[in-house]
Specification:
1232 residues, 6-stranded antiparallel β-barrel, calcium ion binding, disordered N terminus, Laminin, glycoprotein, EGF_Ca-bd_CS, 60 strands, elongated
Length: 1232
């Protein structure tokens, strides 16, 4: 048998015992050995399979060391991987009596049973937990989630189990871009601060709060001093406090719980809980904030750089509260740093946050509101707005209640309490304990040594007793209060009971008064000292809280010197300002309490570069500064350039009505049609501040003050303008130096509805006013972009915008003389028609002028801001002008005075390609008349599609409608008449009122070429100082003559009227002043007009009559294009001693026909005429064409200079006089 076994092993050594069979050996039932066992030959079957063999027995069988070792390795070490020890997809490798696992990347350990992050401690990245992390005694940390969440299968993530879990913002989840926070203080749109609560008392906003559970609100304890719970209401889902918002909910307060250790003097433990009358319904606008565990808040949230504070509080110290929910992101400040800069007594229950420069902070009205911190897309409550020194004051921070200190108190207070209603009856039968046992303060420290008596079942339902509650046991403050039933006695007892008298060591220095507190003390310091122990001497600085000055602050060594604005007196305390009269500047006597919009934003730092003003620092422009004529009068007068720009898209959108007396410094500039076109700010009884670009927008300016509704009852007073001062450096292309001052002829009578704004000092404006959170803008401008102007005065509050952000947002230069204000997204802004109006900043209830509405890109457009002239840069300039004692000038000085008229000829015409062209307000004169406009430009001018494309009703009534002028209205028209005429009863005909009615000459012409005397009674002849004739002209009104600029430069001194020849000299009237059109270019002949003012008026008769001046639309669409006229002028040959008047009939010639004949393209100010009679001689300067219409003659054009080398004796080019009549009217009206 043994030989056969050996033979079998020799054939196949590996078949001796297979690996799998060897592993089963230990499972075989061992056969019982009998006594002859050891006498038999060795057998694998018997020795090692049926039984357990030893090495010697296996060696005896194989009789070979090598084969025995091979067998023994398998026999004694089965495959260690058979049990699949490697977990989580690991690969097992068998070894001698061992194995090892090759683990996938996300696992490790001997059996791949450990994930690497399970070794993390909570201090490192919060253990990778999404929310809360707790370290365990082993190497594994445990993640957990807030209420409403469950831990995901990955053991780190948190999955919401409810529709509206805490700390989430549902409205953001619906947006493609979920960025909902904006650093710098902007409004918090509906649903983006869903835990914010508004607490009201008797309907008035009291404080903020934060929703932490369906029935619980956390707020600040100091909000509820002397407050009756029944008068409180809680609003959730609120955004605009003056409107009913979507998702808004309101609840009463059933229980008000103030922390038992709250100190109303130190504001320590400034926390309170309010239980609502009914649970709120969670929605996308109402969601609770998450309450973090203390360790998570201290180790994780405390190291998040920025947190968010929200509320409806005041937008600046002393200012109005906000109508919109606002939010601001602020950093948390280390306690040591906070104390170093503020010297505040910051307890362990408080923390500091904010900016030292005072740019962003919470303020009064925000109290009780949330300080929340975001971590991994979930928001947690970390603080409660508590207190601070001022609001966003420089050199200080805001103080917040540290919520993590009250985690246990909050949970225990909000935990459900069972009411044992069944035993209340039994309680009333219990004997009442004695209440006359009062503990004296000197033995209060013995309480802790008393043996506590076991409470009976109904202990808490018995009457309060000091002996039982606080001596035999350890009592709470509520139990002590129940016993004393007096707050003052309870406080005195409690302070000693808890920690003894903290003031016994007299810790307050320099005469400070010590007040004992719970575990602490408070020092009330004498003036000039501060700090916890009154051990810091206060060095006053104008940069810290403006040196406590109400108005202006000036540093003097280590002290400050306060002063006040004009009409104020410095108070006896040396820092307050007392109004010196009933109507002192900047006083809003009818100031409303209603909140204005908008919130804290960025600081803007400016410097005043105007240390000295030269005599030529301003240019004087009289009443009608829009005039484009210059006056030839004085040899040494200065030539003033005018801006050709009619105005930018300048610009209140979405403002509220400013009621009578609430914007008393507002002025309105109106034209002669009674339409308001710009605003202004009253500075004094005779001075109004406005924008320089407003001055060129109209032909005549009148100032209205005290007006709030231009459509209703007139409350305002109209004031005539005496002078206008435009800054000499004003740049129309960029609107740099956009400032002007209007001087009135008569002083303003101040009242509670009309009060000037205060003019600040430059330092006060730069360092204090422009670092406030917002300014106030008002005006009658458009209430929306491309909308109509407002009939009522609107006002809106706009935040200052950081200068760098402003520059990045604009396509145009923002100079040092400008600043920005407005919102990035909120649709509130100044708009067209507000230009020149005030930007006011309030400080300690006094309102100062800080800006002038200048320009902007659109109105309230996203990402764009309004641009304002920075008044602080021009304080010396303004004061210099207001100190001027200028005599009242003649009305003719409205125009530029110069003897050297040739200077005017070098002026160049404005190019239509200016890079700022498209930001200006749409204007038909500029866009469609001076240039060729597109439909879009016309639409921009009308700002109404129907009006842009609607037909002109006057064009269809040309023969049967108005006798003279027709004004189209939407689907209608109205008629009017020239000067000297009155509209008849049919509202169409025009009736002459006197013998000076213009153009009224109907006798037939005697000769078509050489008319007789009196046939053109408006034709005049100009004489020089030698009595020789030089040019012609036409009579306008009774004391003005219109001629050409080339004639005016020849210095005419007299005018002959009433004769067609020089002989006889019917009337010779001296010339008082020559007014040359400012844009006249002697190189091209463009704008070749001048207006002569006569020293006296003519006597009207058949021989002496003025020509009528037509309205532009009537002239260009009726007279020129469809009628024949008469060209009259004097022959050009000055060698004639007796020049004769020449007349030629002229018919209109189309532009294309004219171009073919003269090979020249016409500009928009020109038209072409043709005569059937060939001219035999040239006409002199000052030749005009007039057209009769329904019995009245109207002036339509002036003959342009002939080019002799290309002269055509039948075809003539005329300049349309209608394009210049606005300026002509302006000059004529101001001559009286």
């Amino acid at each position: 048998l043994l030989q056969k076994l050996k033979a079998s092993h020799n054939r196949n050594r590996k078949e001796i015992l297979k690996h799998q069979e060897a592993s089963n050996i230990l499972q075989r039932t061992r056969r019982a050995n009998y006594f002859l066992e050891e006498l038999k030959a060795g057998s694998i079957e018997r020795e090692c399979l049926e039984e357990k063999c030893s090495w010697e027995e296996a060696r005896e069988i194989f009789q070979d060391d090598l084969r025995t070792k091979e067998f023994w390795a398998v026999y004694t070490d089965p495959d260690q991987c058979d049990s699949n020890p490697c977990q989580n997809g690991g690969t097992c490798i068998d070894r001698h009596q061992d194995y090892f696992c090759i683990c996938p990347p996300e696992h490790e350990g001997r059996n791949c049973e450990i994930r690497p992050e399970s070794k993390l401690k909570c201090f490192f990245k919060n253990g990778n937990c999404e929310q809360f992390c707790v370290d365990s005694p082993t190497t594994l940390r445990q993640c957990s989630c807030a209420e409403g969440y469950r831990l995901a299968s990955d053991q780190v993530s948190c999955i919401a189990e409810v529709d509206y879990p805490c700390g989430k913002i549902p409205v953001l989840a619906k947006r493609p871009n979920q960025q909902g926070r904006i650093i710098g203080g902007y409004d918090c749109p509906p649903g983006e601060c869903p835990w914010q609560a508004l607490i009201t008392e008797n309907g008035n906003e009291k404080c903020g709060g934060v929703l932490v559970a369906p029935s619980w609100i956390i707020s600040a304890a100091h909000c509820f001093s002397r407050v009756h719970r029944q008068n409180l209401r809680i609003r959730l889902g609120e955004y605009h406090i003056n409107h009913r918002d979507e998702g808004e909910q309101e609840r009463r307060v059933d229980e008000l719980i103030i922390h038992e250790k709250y100190s109303f003097k130190t504001l320590d433990n400034d926390i309170a809980l309010l239980r609502l009358s009914a649970p709120v319904n969670f929605s996308e606008y109402v969601v609770p904030i998450c309450l973090p565990p203390p360790r998570f808040a201290a180790d994780i949230l405390n190291y998040v750089e920025f947190s968010t504070v929200s509320g409806w509080g005041r937008l600046l110290e002393g200012g109005a509260t906000s109508a919109l929910l606002m939010r601001v992101e602020i950093p948390k400040i280390h306690k040591k740093e906070c104390f170093l800069h503020t010297k505040f007594n910051i307890t362990d229950n408080m923390f500091c946050a904010g900016y030292l420069d005072g740019s962003k902070d919470s303020c009064e009205g925000d109290s009780g509101g949330p300080h929340v911190t975001e971590y991994k897309n979930t928001w947690y409550l970390t603080g409660i707005v508590s207190w601070g020194k001022g609001c966003a004051a420089i050199g200080t921070y805001g103080i917040y209640t540290k919520v993590i200190k009250y985690h246990r108190w909050l949970n225990s207070t909000m935990a459900p309490q069972l009411l044992l209603c069944l035993i209340l009856t039994f309680l009333w039968s219990l004997p009442e304990a004695e209440s006359n046992v009062f503990l004296k303060s000197q033995v209060a420290n013995r309480f802790l040594q008393r043996t506590k008596r076991a409470n009976s079942l109904f202990e808490e339902f018995k009457s309060g007793n000091i002996e039982r509650e606080c001596i035999e046991e350890r009592c709470s403050k509520e139990e002590a209060r129940e016993a004393f039933e007096d707050n003052e006695k309870t406080e005195a007892f409690w302070n000693d009971y808890i920690d003894g008298n903290q003031c016994s060591s007299n810790p307050c220095h320099y005469g400070g008064t010590c007040k004992d507190g719970i575990g602490n003390y408070t020092c009330t310091c004498l003036a000039g000292y501060q700090g916890k122990n009154c051990d810091y001497l206060i060095y006053k600085s104008c940069r810290v809280d403006n040196g406590n000055c109400w108005h202006f602050c000036k540093p003097v060594q280590n002290e400050v010197q306060c002063s006040c604005a004009e009409t104020y007196l410095l108070g006896d305390d040396g820092h307050s300002c007392v109004a010196g009269g009933d109507f002192s500047c900047g006083r809003n006597i009818k100031a409303r309490n209603k909140r204005e919009a908008n919130l804290p934003d960025f600081q803007t730092v400016f410097s005043d570069s105007y240390d000295a003003i030269d005599e030529n620092d301003f240019a004087e422009t009289p009443t009608n500064s829009s005039s484009l004529f210059s006056t030839v009068q004085s040899q040494n007068a200065t030539l003033l350039r005018k801006s050709d720009n009619p105005g930018p898209e300048t610009r209140v959108v979405n403002g509220t009505d400013c009621k009578l007396g609430e914007c008393p410094w507002q002025a309105l500039l109106i034209n002669d049609q009674g339409d308001g076109f710009c605003g202004g700010t009253i500075l004094s009884p005779i001075y109004v501040l406005t924008a320089a670009h407003c001055i060129n927008q109209t032909k005549h300016i009148t100032v209205v003050v005290g007006e709030i509704d231009i459509s209703g009852k007139k409350n305002g007073r109209l004031l005539a303008v005496d002078k206008i001062y435009v800054h000499q450096k004003f740049v129309p292309a960029t609107y740099d130096y956009d400032i002007a001052i209007i001087q009135l002829k008569a002083p303003i009578q101040f009242s509670e509805n009309v009060i000037p704004a205060c003019l600040p000092t430059a330092d006060f404006a730069n360092q204090v006013l422009m670092k406030q959170n917002f300014g106030i803008v008002s005006g009658f401008g458009r209430t929306r972009e491309r909308g109509r102007t407002s009939n009522t005065l609107k006002v809106v509050s706009l935040p200052y915008v950081d200068r760098h952000i402003c520059k990045l947002s604009s396509n145009f230069p923002i100079t040092e003389n400008m600043f920005c204000a407005g919102y990035n997204t909120l649709p509130q802004d100044a708009c067209q028609g507000d230009s020149g109006g005030p930007h006011i900043t309030a400080y300690r209830d006094t309102h100062f002028i800080t800006g002038i509405i200048s320009w902007g890109e659109g109105c309230a457009q996203t990402g764009k801001y309004g641009v304002y002239t920075k008044v602080s840069k021009f304080i010396p300039w303004i004061k210099r002008i207001m100190r001027q004692k200028l005599p009242r000038t003649e009305t003719s000085t409205v125009f530029l005075e110069t003897e050297d008229a040739n200077q005017v000829l070098t002026r160049s015409r404005r190019g239509a390609f200016m890079f700022l062209e498209e930001i200006f307000q749409g204007d038909l004169e500029r866009e469609c008349l001076e240039e060729r406009c597109t439909y879009e430009e016309a639409r921009e001018a009308f700002e109404n599609t129907e009006e842009t494309v609607s037909k002109n009703e006057c064009r269809h009534e040309i023969h049967t409608g108005c006798q003279q002028f027709c004004y189209p209205e939407f689907n209608f028209y109205r008629c009017s008449c020239a000067q000297g005429y009155q509209l008849g009863e049919d509202d169409k005909s025009c009736i002459a009122q006197d013998e000076c009615a213009c153009g009224k000459f109907q006798e037939p012409l005697s000769c078509p070429l050489h008319p007789a005397d009196r046939e053109f009674p408006w034709q005049v002849l100009l004489l020089n100082s030698e009595g020789k004739w030089i040019c012609g002209g036409v009579l306008l009104k009774t004391n003005f003559v219109l001629t050409t600029a080339e004639c005016a430069v020849l210095s005419p001194v007299g005018v002959v009227v009433g004769s067609n020849q020089l002989q006889g000299l019917n009337q010779v009237i001296p010339v008082k002043a020559s007014n040359i059109y400012l844009r006249y270019d002697n190189t091209t002949g463009e704008n070749n007009l001048a207006l002569l003012e006569l020293s006296s008026q003519i006597d009207c008769d058949r021989n002496h009559l003025p020509i009528c001046i037509p309205e532009k639309d009537f002239a260009e669409h009726v007279l020129i294009s469809q009628m024949e006229g008469s060209l009259t002028g004097w022959n050009a040959n000055r060698s004639y001693l007796t020049p004769s008047l020449v007349q030629r009939p002229i018919s209109y010639l189309s532009e294309n026909d004219c171009k073919q004949i003269l090979n020249r393209k016409l500009i928009t100010r020109e038209f072409c005429g043709h005569s059937q009679v060939q001219a035999k001689e040239m006409l002199g300067g000052g030749s005009f064409i007039a057209v009769p219409y329904k019995g009245t003659w109207f002036l339509t054009g002036v003959l342009e200079p002939w080019a002799t080398e290309t002269v055509n004796w039948k075809t003539f080019i005329f300049t349309k006089t209608s394009r210049y009549m606005i300026n002509v009217h302006s000059l004529q009206e101001n001559s009286f």
